């Protein structure tokens, strides 16, 4: 009988902790959603395809804090993605999630990094794309599958950011 009581107490504590974690995740998502509007799902005008690659969408974080995941609008889920750089912006088509489109005027920088959230890779293994959404500085980290595509994507992004005279390119 004592084992059954302990099992019930343990199960109750586990359910309580799981419920609190879920509540905190939703509260954080709501708070983040109040800071900025939903990102585009498609560019208004795509232009021509400059580069494309298969990638792993790692996370979208605050630009200055790569350890704070943005949960709002489905940006918290990682997964496989197709990255398309157009002359007018960036489109990340994620498997099982809504696409993320970033207009050229929102892009601020592209750089290589090694860490984001709970993902640590070799030096310069992640492509970090910095962008603005309603005055909030965000960064989306991507792990490009093919190493040769990493430089192609980075160069294409640098090229379209460089043609945006309102922004500074960080290398």
UniProtKB/TrEMBL annotation:
<feature type="domain" description="PH">
    <location>
        <begin position="48"/>
        <end position="156"/>
    </location>
</feature>
<dbReference type="Pfam" id="PF25362">
    <property type="entry name" value="bPH_11"/>
</dbReference>
<protein>
    <submittedName>
        <fullName>Unannotated protein</fullName>
    </submittedName>
</protein>
<dbReference type="InterPro" id="IPR057446">
    <property type="entry name" value="PH_bac"/>
</dbReference>
